[in-house]
Each structure stands twice: as C-alpha cells, then as structure tokens.
Design brief:
Elements (H helix, E strand, L loop, with lengths): L2 H64 L1 H14 L9 H14 L3 E7 L3 E2 L6 E12 L1 H13 L5 E11 L2 E13 L9
Antiparallel strand pairs: 1-3, 2-3, 3-5, 4-5
Keywords: Membrane, Transmembrane, Transmembrane helix
InterPro entries: PilO, Transl_elong_EF1B/ribsomal_bS6
Protein name: Pilus assembly protein, PilO
Length: 191
C-alpha cells in the first residue's frame, strides 16, 4: 500500500470517528439536555398557567370576602326563619312575637295550641310544628297581620287553613299553620 492510501484511510477513519463522536455526543449528551430543557419549560408554562388561575381565584375570593357582612346577614335571616332544634323549639318566643304583632295591628291574638312535632316528608332535617291560633279584631287589621306573617316576620310559616267569622264590626280568624325548625346546626352569627 502506498503512503497516500494509508493517509486516506487514516483521514477517512478519523473523519468517521469524528462524525461518530459528534452523532453519539448529540444523542447521548446534547439531545437529553434539550429534552430536559423542553420538559422544564413545559412544566414552567403549566405552573404559570396554574398560578394565573389561582391568582384569579384569589381575587374572586377577596371580592367575596368583602361581602361577608352581607352573607352573615343572610345567614342570620335564614337562621331566624328556620331556627335550630332545641328543647323549646323557639315556640314561646314566637308566640310572644305574635302577641306583640297583635298589639301593633290592634287585634287580639289568642287561643294558641301547638301540637307535637312532625318530621317533614320532603326534608328530613326539618321538623314541622303545627300551631292553631285565633285572631280577633277588625277585618282590615286581621288581614294586615296575616300579610305581615306571610311576608315580613322572620320565622318561616306555612298557613294551611284559615277560617274567618264576621260578627258585626268584630271578626275572628282561626288559623292553622306550621312553623319549622331544623336539626342541622349552622355556625352562629352575630347580627
């Protein structure tokens, strides 16, 4: 073999070795670094997206927190409408409230009769308290009191039956109604 031929073999062999080292280095060292970098960038982008969502949620929660007094007032109203079950079921307080309303509307509220509790057929955590009640006075005043019971007073009531008896300028309304209590305790809220 000639020297020139040997030099060519060495030259091509060296070039092949260099190419093999470059390709091997690419696949064994450089490409995994690029893959790792791409993975980190994808994770970073995903984390930034999640961070933006969480910041938006935090802003929403801060906005909701500004309404906390409104929510507490709503909860207090709901708790008054549907009080938590206790030994008296809040009936004595309710009956006193009815007497006060009677004075306010210039009618006599009497003849209270509260029978035993009944579990609601539609909502098992709610107990119904049947109450019968007599209201005497002018018809207009009686109607104002009934309207107040249905729309303004805080306790949840359902008027099931009403019987009006008119005798001259005095009238008597016999009501059968249900008051409600709950067995679900909620956080107590100060007004």
């Amino acid at each position: 073999m000639t020297t020139r031929r040997i030099d060519q073999i060495w030259l091509f062999g060296g070039l092949a070795l260099i190419i093999l080292l470059v390709v091997g280095g690419w696949f064994m060292m450089i490409k995994p670094q690029y893959t790792s970098r791409d993975s980190v960038q994808a994770d970073t982008a995903e984390t930034e997206t999640q961070l933006l969502k969480e910041q938006k949620r935090l802003t929403e929660l801060k906005t909701e927190l500004k309404k906390i007094t409104e929510y507490k007032a709503d909860l207090l109203t709901a708790q008054q409408a549907l009080p938590y079950h206790n030994t008296t079921n809040k009936i004595p307080e309710f009956l006193k409230q009815l007497q006060t309303l009677g004075l306010q509307y210039q009618v006599e509220v009497s003849g209270y009769a509260a029978t035993g509790e009944e579990t609601s057929s539609t909502t098992p955590t709610v107990t119904e308290l049947p109450i019968t009640l007599n209201i005497e006075g002018p018809v207009d005043n009686i109607m104002k009191l009934v309207k107040h019971l249905q729309t303004e007073q805080p306790r949840a009531l359902l008027i099931e039956n009403a019987k009006l008896t008119v005798a001259g300028d005095k009238s008597e309304l016999s009501l059968t109604l249900k008051a409600f209590i709950t067995s679900t305790k909620t956080a107590s809220v100060k007004s």
